[in-house]
Design a protein that fits this description.
The chain is built from 17 helices and 34 strands. The chain is an alpha+beta fold. The strands form eight sheets. Strands 1-6-2-3-4-5 form a six-stranded mixed β-sheet, with no helix packed on it. The protein is elongated, with a radius of gyration of 39 Å. The N and C termini lie far apart (94 Å).
Length: 658
């Protein structure tokens, strides 16, 4: 007689195999040490245990046929005879005959586990749980496998085992703790928020008195903020703060609320919560994060919701008599805005529409230059577009007119308009109807390795240009001659990003891919007395390396003497004889060089916006508006009317400056 029983609870089916070969399936009713009762064909049968083998199942579809049952019984007998390998063959034969045989899967799982083959053991136990979890206590096995995986930091494997317990044994005593553990692993280690967040929310509601409730409460609010369930996150985090006011996560909860308010445009609320943490916390890391949020409240970011044609801003230029009008270039054309008194108002005229419809398709704008009489727009593949403010005429200069297709930068003054293009430097001389002059290696011997010019700077005497490969060239406007520019301060492999001038100083930003560094260069307008300054090093991301822009002005800030500083007292030199022999040996003293021109420099990178006062050598920096806009790529920078405007891949950012 073999009596095979695992767990018998709720309504169970039982397969009865008699020694004489008879077999039938009924519903289990009761049992004693000597007899059992089943319901069979609407009758209650009371039979002796002796001479019968019983197999319990929860699904009638899992009743094996006679051949599979025979293989299984033979496997059990072989196990009792201490022949596990042959028993394994019989259990495998039973499953091959009848794949939905939970008892055979279970026995195979035990044998695999005994051989330390936990991978195959888990798969067999998984099959058992799927087929008939009610009759097999698999919790100890799943928990053992899960705990071992967790110790080895195999988090996905641990979660897999724990989730089997949660799914198939929801009433088990270990479920409350495992719900929290599994939820933490899903969100913190595996970043599977879709599975982890609902699990933690369920655990928080069902098991509020467990120690893990506090952490789960906080994480739920933090995750809701991360996946942009912003209003829900505010509510959850406020509830957390009220329930756990002295929690180790309470300051982080305040700061997360500040970030959420910032995303929702509630700048005052964001500033108040961040300021509260900055004043109360003694943790320097927390205070630094609070400061960053306070910095971020200084930014305003304009997007398509503010009438921009696209969030990807590629070019910006100031216009108008006071520089308060702003041209914005995107892959979907241009737009013009009035920004006076910190307003943001689309200018109601047809000029942007006319420019955007001047080409066959909406222009992909890469450069803009504007003055009181005209606007030039450079495109990615359709040449340049010119708008004459005096006549209202719009004209396109395309390859048909002997112009290149790709315009990367535009600079102009009263004499010329200069274009940086992928075919070299193009010059349009004002007051003539002559075709444009194209300067490249073949026709004008411009000293670059390739004709591709990325950026320009125009001064009254010189045009400066730079290629993506690091070549710097100059054009003497008096002699019409090109030359290369070299400086010992510029290291091998350095490429130039963008130029500017500040008073009598030349400025440009650079990056060096080999050294993973970027920075800026400052020199006199003729390139002499150059000095290079490294800003960031160890930059792995190519976009973070290459996107760095500079603007500068003369620093007129008065020098303030230190408080209580005593002015120096001039002491006259002792008199000497006019005919002293030492006078013949005294050489005329060379006066020291004048101090460098004091400047205020603004430098924008993907992560930071720097303000540098060269006198008295003071740096300030704030993070770019990444809380609102996400990871940013900076494409341009201008400073006008005490505001810095930064073109990014996700909106136009503005910040007031001093």
């Amino acid at each position: 007689m073999f009596f095979y029983q695992h767990l018998a609870h709720s309504q169970q089916y039982v397969i009865v195999d008699s020694e004489n070969g008879d077999r039938f399936t009924g519903i289990w009713r009761d049992g004693t040490e000597t007899h059992f009762e089943i319901e069979y064909q609407e009758q209650i049968l009371r039979l002796p245990l002796m001479g019968h083998t019983l197999t319990f199942i929860s699904d009638i579809a899992n009743v094996p046929d006679r051949t599979a049952a025979k293989y299984f019984r033979n496997g059990i007998m072989l196990l009792e005879l201490k022949m596990p390998e042959k028993a394994m063959n019989r259990f495998e034969a039973a499953i091959e005959e009848f794949p939905r045989y939970p008892a055979a899967h279970y026995q195979l799982g035990l044998l695999y586990k005994a051989n330390d083959d936990n991978i195959n053991a888990l798969e067999r136990f998984r099959s058992v749980a799927i087929l008939d979890a009610a009759n097999f206590d698999l919790v100890p096995h799943f928990r053992e496998f899960g705990d071992a995986a967790l110790a080895d930091e195999a988090y996905a494997e641990a979660v897999d085992n724990y989730q089997l317990i949660l799914k198939y044994y929801p009433e088990h005593e270990s479920v409350p703790g495992l719900s929290y553990i599994t939820g933490f692993l899903l969100v913190e280690q595996l970043e599977n928020y879709d599975a982890g967040l609902p699990l933690l929310e369920s655990a928080r509601q069902q098991y509020p008195n467990m120690a893990s409730h506090e952490k789960a409460f906080f994480l739920i609010g933090k995750l809701q903020a991360k996946i942009d369930q912003l209003e829900t996150a505010l509510y959850t985090l406020q509830g957390f703060i009220m329930r756990y006011p002295v929690s180790e996560w309470v300051y982080e909860a305040y700061l997360t609320r500040a970030e959420v308010n910032l995303k929702l445009g509630r700048t005052a609320e964001a500033r108040n919560e961040a300021a509260q943490v900055y004043e109360m916390s003694v943790d320097e890391a927390i205070r630094e994060r609070a400061k960053q949020i306070l910095d971020q409240t200084e930014w305003t970011v304009y997007t398509q919701a503010d009438d921009l044609p696209d969030n990807r801003i590629q070019a910006i230029a100031a216009d108008g008599t006071d520089g308060t009008q702003l041209w914005v270039g995107t892959p979907n054309g241009v737009m013009l805005f009035e920004t006076k008194f910190n307003n943001w108002i689309p200018i109601p005229n047809d000029v942007p529409k006319l420019i955007n419809s001047a080409t066959e398709k909406v222009p992909d704008v890469r450069a803009i230059a504007a003055n009181s009489e005209e606007v030039w727009v450079g495109t990615r593949s359709q040449g340049a577009i010119h708008y004459n403010k005096l006549t209202g005429e719009i004209q396109v200069y395309s390859p048909v007119d002997e112009y290149p297709a790709w315009f990367k930068d535009i600079k102009m003054d009263d004499a010329d308009i200069w274009f940086a293009t992928d075919k070299g430097v193009v010059r349009k001389i004002r007051g003539t109807v002559d075709p444009p002059i194209v300067y490249n290696r073949r026709e004008s011997f411009i000293p670059v390795d390739k004709d591709n010019i990325e950026t320009l700077l125009l001064t009254p005497t010189t045009l400066w240009g730079a290629s993506p490969d690091g070549d710097i060239v100059t054009f003497d406007r008096e002699t019409d001659e090109w030359d290369s520019y070299r400086s010992t301060e510029i290291r091998e492999g350095t490429a130039i990003v963008g130029f500017d001038t500040a008073e009598d100083q030349l400025l440009f930003t650079w990056y060096n891919a080999a050294e993973k560094a970027n920075g800026y260069f400052r020199a006199d307008l003729d390139g002499l007395n150059g000095k290079s300054t490294t800003l960031d090093i160890g930059i792995e991301d190519a976009n973070d390396l290459k996107n760095i822009y500079i603007r500068g002005i003369l620093d007129n800030t008065p020098i303030v003497s230190e408080e209580n500083e005593t002015p120096p007292v001039e002491t006259p030199d002792p008199p000497t004889s006019e005919f002293s022999p030492e006078t013949e040996l005294i050489e005329e003293e060379i006066p020291p060089p004048p101090p460098p021109t004091p400047l205020v420099l603004w430098i924008a990178t993907n992560d930071s916006f720097y303000t540098y006062h060269t006198r008295p050598d003071e740096w300030e920096n704030t993070t770019t508006p990444q809380i609102v806009s996400g990871e940013l790529i900076i494409n341009a920078l201008i400073v006008v009317n005490n505001r810095a405007w930064i073109a990014t891949n996700n909106g136009l950012a503005a910040i007031n400056i001093r």
